[in-house]
Amino acid sequence: MCARYAYVFLAEEVMRLISLGWSHHDAIDACFNMAPTMRAPVIVVGKDGSPGLTTLTWGLVPSWASDPSIGSKMVNARSETISEKPAYKEPFEKRRCVVPISGFYEWETLRELKRKKPWYVSPEDESIMLLAGVWDRWGTGEDRLDTYTVVTTKARGRMAEIHERSPVMLRGNDWSTWLTGTQEDAIGLCEPKEPDWLSFRPVSTRVGNVKNNDPSLLERVESEPGEQLGLF
Questions:
Q1: Which of 98, 187, 220, 225 has the fewest CB atoms in 10 Å of its CB?
Q2: Which candidate, 171, 206, 203, 210, places its Cα nearest to that of 31?
């Protein structure tokens, strides 16, 4: 976690949710299969000190990297080491961000069946979910690339039954603390919690192909044609 997610909302909805001061985008096209190297809406603190909505590329490329292709491998940052790792230390100190999503996908390993089962995890009330992230800027001019990564922590409760890691989910006014609070306050938000407000829905393995991007990816699918679940 987290390697795929979905967002189905309007820019205005995000603006209202946390009273953002500005936005570079009047509209956001829905994406049902957001994958690394793609651009997505992200909340950052602007030059005037107020939070606003922009779009960044998923997969953090450190400012000092020699090759931007490294970003495809840096889609998650562990909260336990985010203040120490060279790639994340400065972004965590100076450039935290919040990633608004509708829900994320996670794959449960079914060892007895030798396959993985995809789940869609989202708020039960279908509200916008806010994830903790950090961002960085690589290059200048036409070569400039602004990228982000999602911060993860140890999973708890139902989430832990699917995967050992979970994105850091921000509730209430946690988003403000994450963006502008001290590093100690931000780390405190990364403490593992049991997500009793989430819905877990089995979905189609079609989500594994990034070319598939349609509303049906969010539909419940208990089993698929040709799939032998077995009784023993």
A1: 225
A2: 210
